[in-house]
Amino acid sequence: MTNQRRGIARGWGLAVLALAACGGGGGDFRTVTAQDVTGIAPGDAQGTAYSGQYGLTVSITGRECDQIKLTTFPTTATVTQNDGRLVVDLTQASVRHLEGAAYADGSFKVGGEATHPFGLTEYVLVEGTLGNGRVEGDVYLTFVWSGGSCRGVGSVSGSRQ
User: Fold this and answer.
1) Are residues 32 and 98 in contact, defined by beta-carbon separation less than 8 angstroms?
2) pLDDT digits (tens, 9 = 90+) for 94-141
3) Hey, which residues does 156 pair with through a beta bridge?
4) What would the pLDDT profile of 22-71 be if each residue is shown by its tens digit?
5) 32-70 burial string, b = 16+ CB within 10 Å, else e?
6) Distance (Å, rounded) from C-alpha 125 to C-alpha 34?
7) Are 78 and 98 in contact (CB under 8 A)?
8) What is residue 124's predicted lDDT score, i.e. its pLDDT?
9) What is the pTM of this model?
10) How far is it, in rounded angstroms, from Cα 124 to Cα 88?
11) Using the 8-state DSSP alphabet, how is residue 117 labeled?
12) Three-state SS at 42
């Protein structure tokens, strides 16, 4: 295994939020880019009802390449809602800070990115629903390095603590 591939595997070993050729938790693969995860416009939700601590389980269930590890792991999320703006900070994930939108219908969209060793950049987009103390969503991720890219999919679920 080359150092670059070891770096990719190690970067994923840190594991995202980071969520398919094998099917997947959320459907089809998507190519997630910096443009997809930065500057997500606020949604139309009002208030702070979704704010709080959530215990989550993240499952990465599909991948295009062996560098992405199929895994399931727990994490805790601090969710901060300010009307249509949603911020998610995770205790365990390679992309620990996600920002995006909360919508009046209970749906949300957040994204983030992280840079790893060996020139690896990871982009993560999560889309789902929040309500009644529960979170459910689809995870889409893309790793990019000088020699190419690889995509994965998964899911996230959990409840307010």
Assistant:
1) no
2) 899 999 999 999 999 999 999 988 889 999 999 999 999 999 999 999
3) 58, 137
4) 333 445 899 999 999 999 999 999 999 999 999 999 999 999 987 778 89
5) bbeebbeebeebebeeeebeeebebebbbbbbbeebbbe
6) 10
7) no
8) 95
9) 0.83
10) 12
11) G
12) coil
State both tokens at 83. Answer: 């009307």
User: Which residues does residue 52 pair with via DSSP β-bridges, in sequence order?
Assistant: 79
Q: What is the DSSP string of 15-35?
A: ------TT--SSSS-----HH
pLDDT-based confidence at residue 92 (cuts at 50, 70, 90): confident
60: tokens are 């990465």
Question: 10 Å Cβ neighbour count for 4?
Answer: 17
- Which residue's entry shows tokens 């770096």? 7
Single-letter amino acid code for the residue at 56: L
